[in-house]
Q: What sequence folds into this?
């Protein structure tokens, strides 16, 4: 019988095994009847190689904004190996050394918060937050303050509850009916605001949230859940004044503020967390992806001490947070996360994210001057987007088919970029860039050159 090692060195055998047995994420498999599935076999720094030996610059950190510190970090692999050989797993009712030490170091980066609840994915972390909200409603508000507000275009995960809080209609399609008690508020995309801009639009976008609060009844709303910068919904940086007003509304109506940092967290925007760019103080913060940079599975639901204290009640046998995440007890995640945190500090990756983000933004603006199809460039740090339009004057979105053709052409050139797709009907028209925080000007020049060539090929110049 062939060993795993023998089989792994036979590309055709691996491809056929994948074709026959693997159900891939987010992709239609019908083309695999005649086209080989893509298999990535190695990564170093910002580059990956597929099973056929082709090299790619990865401008989306593992396809889903995860590998923040780059591929091939031996010290992370060694830390994970050493930890799991000593103690691989124990259920989260008990503590572990890496779990305790990472929680301590994480909280140092998050003034005003104090408790870390471990799980293993962003979807699950958000579920934990909403379960906390629902239990608080029952314990402290007679079951009434249970509703969760979420924003159009934001995305919070793949479970049915997360889809219930999903502002992307095409991701939600065919999965209903959804859980009750989730209520949508409008998006805050200034480019699509029409008659207002800047602080004027920020005030109006926040006022639209207040309208929903008053319509639903403030005494029924437990939390407002928002991404600090909308990610897959189009890299939407909220307008000036928006976040300050949102914070005021939460305090005014006694609504907990839950910030979903699954994408923006751990340096993506140039600060440890995206919300720190806006001077706000959340009550709950969820994170995953970049926490361990893809080297192990981990997510965290982080709360203030006041939220935690609401579950300390030994007079009620059901009064504690009765939740478990089996693989929240795996020690590989916090062991890897400790190394990621140290690498981020030692190599000043927050600073590099800010500097290279400015560089990438500048290069994309240069492309915008060259190509009328780019309607707007927006983002923060190494988290940038370029919204494509068929007509700059009317801002008519470029059709999704052409947007995806640009992505495919970049891939053929050896550059992996992202784009909003199969998410928002008629508005899947934004190219997405989120390279690892180690990116250099040379890396980004190669990415932008590929986009330039792809736009010229698919749409034409000017």
A:
């Amino acid at each position: 019988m062939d060993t795993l090692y023998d089989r792994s060195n036979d590309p055709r055998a691996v491809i056929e095994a994948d074709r026959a047995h693997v159900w891939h994420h987010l992709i239609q498999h019908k083309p695999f009847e005649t086209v080989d599935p893509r298999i990535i076999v190695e990564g170093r720094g910002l580059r990956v190689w597929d099973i056929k030996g082709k090299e790619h610059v990865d401008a989306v950190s593992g396809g889903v904004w995860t590998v923040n510190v780059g591929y091939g970090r031996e010290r992370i692999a060694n830390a994970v190996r050493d930890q799991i050989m000593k103690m691989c797993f124990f259920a989260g009712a008990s503590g572990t050394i890496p779990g305790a030490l990472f929680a301590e170091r994480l909280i140092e980066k998050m003034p005003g918060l104090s408790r870390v609840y471990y799980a293993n994915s962003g979807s699950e972390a958000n579920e934990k937050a909403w379960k906390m909200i629902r239990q608080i409603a029952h314990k402290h508000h007679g079951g009434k303050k249970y509703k969760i507000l979420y924003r159009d275009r934001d995305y919070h995960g793949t479970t049915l509850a997360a889809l219930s809080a999903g502002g992307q209609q095409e991701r939600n399609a065919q999965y209903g009916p959804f859980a009750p008690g989730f209520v949508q508020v409008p998006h805050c995309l200034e480019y699509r605001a029409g008659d207002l801009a800047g602080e004027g639009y920020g005030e109006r976008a926040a006022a639209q949230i207040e309208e929903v609060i008053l319509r639903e009844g403030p005494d029924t709303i437990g939390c407002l859940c928002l991404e600090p910068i909308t990610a897959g919904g189009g890299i939407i940086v909220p307008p000036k004044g928006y976040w300050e007003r949102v914070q005021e509304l939460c305090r005014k109506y006694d609504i907990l503020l839950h910030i979903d940092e699954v994408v923006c967290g751990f340096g993506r925007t140039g600060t440890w967390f995206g919300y720190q760019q806006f001077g706000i103080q959340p009550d709950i913060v969820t994170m995953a992806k970049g926490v361990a940079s893809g080297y192990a599975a981990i997510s965290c639901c982080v709360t203030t001490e006041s939220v935690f204290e609401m579950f300390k009640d030994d007079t009620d046998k059901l009064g504690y947070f009765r939740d478990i995440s089996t693989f929240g007890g795996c020690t590989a995640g916090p062991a890897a996360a400790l190394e990621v945190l140290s690498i981020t500090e030692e190599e000043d990756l927050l600073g590099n994210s800010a500097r290279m983000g400015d560089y990438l933004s500048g290069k994309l603006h240069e492309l915008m001057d060259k190509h009328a199809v780019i309607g707007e460039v927006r983002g923060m740090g190494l988290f940038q987007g370029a919204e494509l339009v068929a007509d700059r004057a009317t801002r008519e979105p470029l059709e999704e088919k052409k947007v995806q053709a640009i992505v495919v052409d970049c891939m053929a050139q050896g550059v992996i970029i992202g784009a909003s797709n199969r998410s928002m009907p008629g508005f899947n028209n934004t190219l997405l860039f989120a390279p690892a925080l180690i990116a250099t000007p040379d890396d980004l020049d190669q990415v932008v050159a590929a986009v330039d060539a792809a736009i010229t090929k698919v749409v034409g110049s000017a």
About this structure: The first strand starts at residue 40 and ends at 44.
